[in-house]
Write a structure and sequence with these properties.
It is built from nine helices and no strands. The chain is mainly alpha-helical. It has one domain. Helix 2 crosses helix 5 and helix 2 crosses helix 9.
């Protein structure tokens, strides 16, 4: 994935005068933002379960209402926009978009989490720790491996698009439990590999960028990518644990 160059602005020039940050400091910023987004998603889901379910559930039909779908597809559009334009906006602005996306996704995930609480509350903790363990292992692999993982980019992107299309189709037509089990397993695999791919990309991109301003922009992009990978793995693992 090529790293875009941004135009020189007063803010960028001031940031460029700061001492270059180390890889450790850079990754610390990435993971702080990423886990902050995960915490915000959990908080919004908890608030929605306890106080906001009528906002996303049609009380007459029991299905989802316009607000739910607006948040679902609006959040998807917001994440695409942020990834495409992150090097054209201030890091603070990109960080706000990350927070908005994390908050909207927390509301969208509420039905899945509420179902898990009803069926098997322990599955939430199990899914979180399994996803965290897989995320940590794949992130470490992506950072340490000397093998070039860039060839996986196009295949992972195609896999992600396929998973999105299957998710949309499942809202219209009921899909068999066996088929959805396969989809969940593929989803876990795709986003586990995405974690390794993104970590290697961040490591290489950090070395290519010369000033602190662009690295701050890259940190937000990396946090968004890793956040999406972690939440997707958690979601698919939780679905597998409660596939009944």
């Amino acid at each position: 994935m090529p790293v875009k160059k941004t135009k020189s602005t007063p803010a960028a020039r001031r940031a460029a005068t700061k001492p270059a940050d180390s890889m450790a400091a850079f990754l610390q910023r990435v993971f702080l933002m990423m886990f902050g987004a995960v915490a915000l998603t959990g908080l919004m889901s908890w608030l929605t379960i306890n106080f906001g379910l009528p906002l996303i559930i049609n009380q007459q039909t029991g299905g989802f209402n316009f607000i739910f779908y607006a948040l679902l597809f609006g959040g998807l559009a917001l994440s695409i926009f942020a990834q495409a334009r992150v090097f054209s906006m201030k890091p603070q602005t990109a960080g706000v978009l990350l927070a908005l996306y994390a908050a909207s996704l927390g509301i969208v995930l509420t039905p899945l989490i509420a179902s898990a609480l009803f069926l098997n509350p322990a599955s939430l903790i199990q899914a979180f720790f399994i996803a965290a363990a897989m995320f940590g292992c794949m992130a470490l692999f992506g950072y340490k491996t000397a093998r070039d993982l860039s060839f996986m980019g196009v295949f992972l992107f195609m896999g992600m698009i396929g998973l999105i299309l299957v998710g949309i189709a499942s809202m219209i037509w009921p899909l068999g439990s066996g088929f959805m089990t396969i989809v969940c397993l593929v989803g876990v695999l795709v986003f586990a590999l995405f974690t390794a791919y993104d970590m290697q990309f961040l490591k290489r991109a950090h070395a290519q960028l010369g000033d602190r301003y662009q690295r701050d922009q890259l940190a937000v992009l990396g946090a968004l990518h890793l956040y999406i990978a972690f939440i997707a793995m958690f979601q698919y693992i939780l679905m597998l644990l409660n596939r009944r």
